[in-house]
Amino acid sequence: MVLTQSVLDASSTMLERLPTSIVESESVACKRVALEIADLIRKRQAENKLVVLGLATGNTPIKIYQELVRLHKDENLSFSNVVTFNLDEYYPMSKSSVLSYYYFMHHHLFSHIDIPEEHINIPNGEVPKENISEFCKTYEDKINAYGGLDVQILGIGRTGHVGFNEPGSHMESVTRLVKLHPITIMDATREFSREELVPRRAITMGIKSIMKAKKVYLLAWGEKKAGIMQQAVEGPITEEIPATFLQNHKNVETLIDGDAARELTRIKRPWVVSVVNWDEQKAKNAVIWLSQKLERPILKITDEDYRKNGLGDLLAYGGDSQSLNVEVFNAVQHTITGWPGGKPHTDDTNRPERATPARKRVVIFSPHPDDDVISMGGTFLKLVEQGHDVHVAYQTSGNVAVHDDDARRFAEFAKEFASDLKSSNDLFANKYDEVLSDLENKKEGEPDSLLVRQIKGLIRRGEAASGARFVGLNDDHIHFLDLPFYETGKAVKGVPGEGDVNITKDLLLKVRPHQVYVAGDLRDPHGTHKVCFDVVLDTLKELRTEPWISDCWLWMYRGAWHEWPVDEIEMAVPLSPLDLKKKRLAIFKHQSQKDSPVFPGNDSREFWQRAEDRNRATARLYDSLGLVEYEAIEAFVRYPFLSSEAE
Ligand code: F6R
After folding, report:
1. Full-model pTM
2. Which DSSP helix (H) or strand (E) runs through 364?
3. If we measure between CA atoms, which residue out of 354, 365, 356, 353 comes closest to residue 517?
């Protein structure tokens, strides 16, 4: 789905208190911001003046920095007249740490441009505690001495923070030491590997410091930011969501991509704010919304209900409530199938999958070694039971998510087994000593050695194979791709490239699938699931001239934490209590992820519990709309990768 600015019209923004543009993509927006900054730099150069930039770290602005570096290298943009002030730095934090914002800024920008070192200002995470308030005052005074910030770039945290101004920050706040919110700590865990390694505090510019900037860009990408962006853009000004203070800024521009805009009223419930050009999908969306709002099954909604809830126009489009209700009810009904590979020898006009060929070749891509069974274990089982030729491909090794003591236990096992066999004993003993010393000498935040990573990867491989065998696959249908982009040994991964695509291509050319399943987690543009999704998509696009590709359908499932909105679901596979039990047993094969995994997220439930709760919730939702009551449902959305829409 590509949303562009054309979605915006005057009436649709009446609820929006921040001027917001929905941009085609993160890249397009970042290029635009970089160009505007470059224009200002050049203009000031001509006047022999300085430009003062307020900079942010994190994933959001990276592409702006990439573009600025490109402009410097390819188009001679000089930064000699640029002074920068960064928003924040963790505290305590050493400048030499790869996790510091000091490192981040040099790595992404400063080391590649000609900015004078003395023009760079970043809050100092090394300052002794007793000197912090003096440091903060000097920082603030220095910004003012330069005449304030010309431009401030801002990302937004899921707490609504800008800079590290967490909920509760005062509108008069200036540069100071702050405590990070638990959600921010959790989000930073990806960089720091373990939650307890994330610093609990930071030095940040305040709301007042930010508000003084002459121009502010607030940026957000990905569905993960959709909820907080809705509150920042449409909600009242409140200390609880510090980004809402920006509503009072005279020159703020908010740029968000289609995924981050999903919760805005103009996208989610456009009929509330504008005249809607009704079509089937919008009608479905509105009727389901109404049914949920009224807590009444679709077939029981009346004309009056439509009228009272701002949907009078929809009645005009649909004729009357009865025909509308039946149309939407049927559309939802037709998503349900117990035959995810298509039901052979039946009329498939109203079924989500084709009846032919009766036996399909299927590839299930699993970003981590357990996503297949966690997210679509029930469907996986059905596809195999219904006789399809099913392959599973584990895209990454998952080796960062294994506890050290598990690696040690397996190394010990190998050593003792070899000694029992009285064969190559020395070799194993040496390796074991190496593993032990690697684990013992690992410093906080450092990646594992290659040997330890190999053991951890093998542990996950064994579990994945065991899960897939349990589902009924033979070993020649179980593939481990070990995509190179993942192999950094750290929570932050590399950039995917040709190597990743080529590995994926080899598999697809071998299988020539009719169905491909991928994790469609578009929520987090920088997470492993999204990268894995993009790799498959890029590969399929490269294979577009293959004769089998026009018969290949791409189905997206979602990861452990969230489900598709019900109006978007295109295939709903019901699971019986027995199906659910089998699925649970398949998930149990992933022993290293049981009880307390290395990356639990902010959810104390185990993966099998999250999966079951979510699948049961989807079934309850279908039930509440007035459809048949099932124990659980796994849901899928089709991605039309060959159509122009997906380009
Ligand atoms: C970073 C900063 C933070 C981030 C925000 C979003 O200097 O001040 O407010 O902008 O946490 O982080 P990302 O961009 O990683 O989603």
Report:
1. 0.82
2. strand 361-366
3. 365
